[in-house]
Every structure is written in C-alpha cells, then in structure tokens.
Amino acid sequence: MGPPPGASPSPLRPPGAKVRAFVIDDSAVMRQLLCAILSEEDDIEVVGTAPDPYVAREKIKRLHPDVLTLDVEMPGMDGLKFLENLMRLRPMPVVMVSSLTSQGASATLRALELGAVDVVAKPQGDPRTTIPTVGAELRAKVRAAAQVQLGRAPRLPPPQSPASGALAAGRREHGLIAIGASTGGTQAIGDILQRLPENMPPIVVVQHMPPRFTAYFAERLNAQCVLEVREAGDGDRLQPGMALIAPGGRQMDVTRAANGYRVRVYDGEPVNLHRPSVDVLFGSVAAAAGFHGVGVILTGMGGDGARGLWAMRRNGALTIAQDESTSLVFGMPERAIREGGVCEVLPLDRIAERLIAWASRD
Asked: FRET partner for 68 with CA separation of 20 to 30 A, picked from 22, 163, 246, 328?
C-alpha cells in the first residue's frame, strides 16, 4: 500500500504538532459528521473540506494538510481517479471512507493498490451512537496516516512465478503460519502470499479491515496467488495450500482438530480496539500449534499482536517481524520486537523465502 515508484517521501511533521486533516465528501451531512468525529480530540485539526475533487484540488494547494479523508463515490471525478492523479502529482497520506456496499468495498481495495494508506467504513445511522463507535477508529487511522513517509516502503514488483518444490510432509501436515497486519498490510500480505507455492502449510491471516471488505480482499488475493485464499468461516478446516482471512468485525482463533486445525469465527469483544485482533489469533496459534507454528507481524499502528507473538515464541514457534525500512508504519512490529516476541527481523522481500525455507524443513 504505498505510492507509485519514484514518489517523494512525505515531510515529517514537527513533534507535538496537530494532525492537519482535510475531508472530501459530496454529502454535506457526512462532511459535518466526519469533521465532528475528527475534532473530538485536540491533536487533530480539520483545516478544510470539499464536496468534490475539483474544489479539493485548489484548497489542498493552499492549506497543505497532512492527511486527506476521501470518499470513493463522488459525481464528476470519482475518488479513484482523483487518488490516482494525487499520487502521481502530489503524493500524500489518504484514508478512504467507504460505504459498506459491494461497489464501495471493491473500489476501496483498488484505492489501496493506488496508494491510499487505510480505509474506514462510512458512518451509518444515528450520529449520537456513530461518533463514539466509529470515532476512535477513524482518529487512530488518521493519526497513523500522518506518520507515514510515502516513498519509504515502495511496492515490490510482482513475482514472475511462485516458488515451487516439494515440502516436507511433516511441515505440510502439522505446520501453521499466522500473519497479522494493520496500516499498510493489504499490500504487504499480497506481496508475501503471491510468492508462496501451493504446497505450503495452512495460513491464517488477520488484517484490520471493516466488515465486507475482507471478503473482497480475499477474492482479490485468490485471483493473484496459487494458494487458495478465502474469507474464513466458522469451523473451516485448515489444509495445506490454503490461506484464510479473518472476517472484518469478528474475532478468529485456531483450535486443534483431528489431524490438523480448525478456525473458530465468533462475535467476541474487541481486543486492543480491534475485531479481528492479531493478539487473539496469535494467542490461539501459540496454544494449538506450539513449535509447529510460525508468526509474522507486519506493518501497522499500535501494539496489537505483540502479546500473542510473545506467547508463540515462548511455546517454541519461529516469529518474524517486518523491518522498519519496508514498513509503512512500524508501530506493530516495533512493539513486538521491544516486548521480546520476535526471533527474526526481515525486510518484506525476504519474508516469503524465509517461510518457504521453514516449511521445507522436516
């Protein structure tokens, strides 16, 4: 999820400076609601709004915001076209605000490929209940976006073909790979999974995303990978060559089953403000797989996953963190490293080959 190759890095903000946000949405009511949510706490200042990309273009030149929130579907020039132009001419962090529709989810995933940093679901229903439930997530993602230095973590070129070769039967039958990510993770996860052969041990993934978006994320990955990739369902049995994505808005964990593992998908409480939570997944893999497991924590803001990765390492698993130079936001890997849960720190382009090497050993 980075800008096009050659894009200039975003300038660093002075320490302690407020995040200067700019809201683009064709609905006056939605602009007002987003401004209220972002202004709820003192560290974010909404410096301007616009009903469409044409008005936004002129105001952005004058106001120099740190972060944009951008609606996907707007009349005239839609959000995707505007984003494509923006990332080519004036790269800056963008958080997409999308409706929970099939069209909105599909367009938002395309926006992430074009260089948007993150996505939040458009607030629905009564503003009196929307602001406290959606507000924390939106503000956290805008803060995270303001930390991103565009151009630091360029997208890897797609592999010519996935790695191939027979893997040891023991790893295929008993091994289990768990991956967790947040801001910048959709691109990082895709870069890894596209490089893995079809005979890999089963893979379980938590990517912080809203409901419905994870299903489209899984579909898109399935079309790009030789692995079978799909959104997880409660009770699904994990098999070699399969990667299951945790559904947005629900928790997912792993349990032992006869001759393997199953996933449990349920309506649990948020953990670390997240549902799905990386800590929930990693903690369950620590208990279910022990030294047969491997945990990978990728780019993202906050500390979700650090505790679970430490539990995996304590139980004998290999644990890997993405390095700072290739992370869009280094928060989650950095916290896991600091808390002692990481065996190896690797750049994104070496993680897939490390997983293949691990899976190839009996």
From this structure: 246
Catalytic member of 253, 304, 323, 327? 304
Both tokens of 247, joined, read 């559904």
182: annotated active-site residue: yes
Which single residue is written with the structure tokens 């069209």?
103
Q: How far apart are CA 330 and CA 48, in angstroms?
A: 29
Which residue among the candidates 208, 236, 253, 323 is catalytic per the annotation? 208
Regions of the chain short of the pLDDT cut 50: 1-11
Task: Exactly one of 182, 277, 284, 327 is catalytic; name it.
Answer: 182
User: 179 in helix, strand or coil?
Assistant: strand
Q: Quick one: pLDDT at residue 5?
A: 35
126 is catalytic: no
What's the whole-model pTM score? 0.88
pLDDT for the residue numbered 107 = 84
Query: Which residues are paired to 252 by β-bridges?
Result: 265
Q: Among candidates 4, 38, 2, 41, which has minimal Cα distance to 22?
A: 38
* 237-238 and 260-266 beta bridge pairing: antiparallel
For residue 23, how far is the Cα from the chain centroid?
22
